């Protein structure tokens, strides 16, 4: 997923991700990051919400990537919602997340 994303091949990244028999926080975060780093913040947010619906809990890297997506979209409301999630999950003291 990450390799295709770094090459700008979002379609193949999505295909690989979608064909995974099991997806964990690492694979979900990779897909979110691919979209965020390629200027597709809206898609990153959609994947983030789908990840949560699947019951996968975001980690530090997930939050950094999704906040990057919000910033690229200037999506203040979504950023505030994610900030509330960060606080609720106890990541507010995390230096990496705090600097995102």
Structure description:
Helix 3 (25-37) packs antiparallel against helix 4 and helix 4 runs antiparallel to helix 5. The two termini are 23 Å apart. This protein has seven helices and no strands. The longest helix has 14 residues, at 60-73. By secondary structure, the chain is mainly α.
Give the % helix.
over 70%
**Classification by helices and strands:** mainly alpha
Tally of helical runs: 7
What is the terminal-to-terminal distance?
23 Å
Oligomeric state of shown chains: single chain
How does the overall form come out from the CA principal axes? globular
Record field, number of beta strands: 0
Tell me what portion of residues adopts beta-strand conformation. Answer: under 5%
- Element order, helices and strands? HHHHHHH
